[in-house]
Amino acid sequence: MSSTKPISLIVSITFIFFLQSSSAQTVVKASYWFPASEYPVTDIDSSLFTHLFCAFADLNPQTNQVTVASTSQTKFSTFTQTVQRRNPSVKTLLSIGGGAADKTAFASMASNPTSRKSFIDSSIRLARSYGFHGLDLDWEYPSSATEMSNFGTLLREWRSAVVAEATSSGRPRLLLAAAVFYSNNYYSVLYPVQAVANSLDWVNLMAYDFYGPGWSRVTGPPAALYDPSNAGPSGDAGIRSWTQAGLPAKKAVLGFPYYGYAWRLSNANSHSYYAATTGAAISPDGSIGYGQIRKFIVDNGASTVYNSTVVGDYCYAGTTWIGYDDNQSIVTKVRYAKQRDLLGYFSWHVGADDNSGLSRAASRAWDATAATAIIIQKV
Fold it and tell me: Any signal peptide, and if so, which residues (predicted)?
């Protein structure tokens, strides 16, 4: 028997929105790869990324030209072709420098118009000859007002050069990016934010390495998104400093690590943040990849903790304590990046992941943003 009385039907329809590619960068879901990780390029699941960085090309301090070590030339020259087999639309960038690079060589190069031109012209030639879609500068870090000013000049000239090269060659313009300090304030030395914003397609904000055995004698979140005290470093503080200084949110890409740091606790019964330690554990500097962390947890029956206040994870077994990012931290950071209307996220580095688990979680978190529409229908 059917009723003749009006009834209200509430229908919830969920729409999944996917960002579409265009001539402008609409999203960056990226990671770095480097040969010393011994992770085969063929193993990268490039379907999880929009961009991949091949690291690192070197700066020759005598010629100021960008070069690739002879042992890496084959892998670098075939990098784009290899990762595009699984994802033909993925873009690749050749990254120059790195944390181990000679900072004085970059400072010297950037200080002179002739040496800047040598760097710029050779970087473009190398990127084109190896089939990369862009270039990434990882100078860690310009450390004086003069060096920051020269950094800005270098970026402006680099931008002009890639635009001119694209015009003369008829090819798409090379992308330009840079990996920078998590904050625009590098120990009281300010980045040239306007030059960065005008010259680069985006910047990778390295929001990690906040705590580590080499520079902190207590345990701490290596890549906290938030710091409740507002006194220490955090990803959110870095994003705010850059955007408040004038960097458009759509040119900011939030970085997070696929590795953590291990300490040896002074007291096995004190295993939260800011516990006293006696130094590094597991490796000489305490660094340990996410895949290795997962193995440590299983092999040692380690306890795991997710801290939603800072957005970070840690685990401990006996006197060994490891701070890192697990799935929930990564997903929360990706959602934060999207809520703040950032361009996207990147990780260091793809080879440290555990069977692409973190990369998969990050990609899904970005893509599966849903909106629910309620339709009320009277019958």
Answer: 1-24
